[in-house]
From TrEMBL:
Name assigned to this protein: Histidinol-phosphatase
Cofactor(s) of this protein: Mg(2+)
Example of a GO biological process term: L-histidine biosynthetic process
Residues the record lists as binding Mg(2+): 37, 54, 56-57, 181
A family per Pfam: Inositol_P
Similarity comment text for this entry: Belongs to the inositol monophosphatase superfamily.
Lineage: Eukaryota, Viridiplantae, Chlorophyta, Pseudoscourfieldiophyceae, Pseudoscourfieldiales
Amino acid sequence: RDTKSDASPVTVADRAAEMAMRKLIEQTFPDHGVFGEEAGYSGAPDASYVWILDPIDGTKSFITGKPLFVTLIALTCEGKPCIGVIDQPVIGERWVGASGHPTTCNGEQVRCDDVEVKLSDAYVFATTPKMFDGSPETRRRFDAMSSACREVLYGCDGFAYGLVASGHADAVCEADLGVYDAAALVPVLEGAGGVITDWQGESLRFDPSILVNPETSGDKLTVLATRNGALHKEALLALE
């Protein structure tokens, strides 16, 4: 395994998996763009449809044998995620979301908005406490969220968003995410009745003009995903 410029690990499996996915997409949809964590953007810069790939989200989990890493696949149309897949190959769970359709896990419809939970009773996931160290303001806002919820649980990577979609977890609050970490999550959460935005409550968009430009494609995102709108509003207030 190697180390990226930001000190995060990357494995032979990361690169090989992305190459295999890229090859399949480019052969099947030659007019689509492709953006991946490992190789950046390829295809027409003005492509209406762009695939966003993270072959192994949770590389540290992968290299240490913890079965919480996932493969994230998204298809965006004019910058809006319209299809999302969260796949955990070891446990054998796959969430699929598509605009206008209910989210499924292994072919069975899932919902997460059928239980009312106050923030003070909510279990909130995040990958690592270190992801909030980018600025004092980010740390302050997350600490406020942490104090307001029942408990923060760490270490689930992208798998946590599937748990929210299935109604097992209440929320995920994260910072320092790449576009490849976030795009697939949107259709999965929304199709299950959940709400997912940035910390300002704005919809997550992935415009091709951002992905094509190396100076902007690496911009980091904040993400707040919750099981329903009421909890989302309460969590946004805690993050102010």
